[in-house]
Amino acid sequence: MRTSSNPAFRNLPGNGQGGYANFGYQGQTQTQPGYGYPQGPGYPAPPTAADRPMTIDDVVTKTAVTLGTAVVTGGLSIIAGLPYGWAFVALIVGFALSMFIIFRQSSNPALILAYSAAEGVFLGTITELFNRWVPGVALQAIVGTVAVFGVMLIVYKTGAVKVTPRLTKWIIGATAGALALVVFNLIFSLFGVDLGLRSGHGALSIIVSLLFIGIAAFNLLLDFDMADRAIRAGAPARFGWYIAFGLMVTLVWLYLELLRLFASLQRN
């Protein structure tokens, strides 16, 4: 089974089949409780809503709720004019929740929505800060994120780019390299050395942002593929929350990179 560079998706159930153009395909026949399902003494209880096989509607609905929570808390943060220090607090809370969700493979909606709310506060506060520096950059980043998501979904559904094991390894390697670069730059910055990779508005910083945006965009292909294979494998409906969480991890990264890029381009 292929794995994803998104840590939230690495252990999703799947049967190893690629779902390039059939995101909503289900490999199992669902049985509705009370309709042709044997009941009574000696028969197992009908499957509950949480145990039934996941569908594309589960993924779409739960993803919409997760993203909507972030949008609402982000908007409220901007309206309330929260101090910028809240961004750091929200970042720590969101990171802690994400680590717990990933390592426990939790599909608890309360935890995932709490993570989404924390990320909303972080993104809202950071967005307000960037928008003060460069008016209008927030709208550009939002439109850019939606556009990239839509394009990559079309690319996936049409099979224009197939999620093959070779492509998966390339994306995972690129993502690991991006993370290593960020850590490398952070270590140098702690010693007062500015490599210009993630700060300033020079050509090198812009090139790095473009590279990271490309990697994040291709990570969306892996996310779509892992969600597709979970549906094919008959993963329980509650797993839709976990998939929604994984998609949001990628979208947060993509949005932050676009925000940084547009701000850098306009301040040059």
TrEMBL record:
The keyword Zinc does not apply. This is Putative YccA/Bax inhibitor family protein. Coiled coil: none annotated. The chain crosses the membrane at residues 59-79, 85-103, 133-155, 167-191, 203-227, 239-256. The keyword Membrane applies. It comes from Kutzneria buriramensis. It comes from the Bacteria. Keywords: Membrane, Transmembrane, Transmembrane helix.
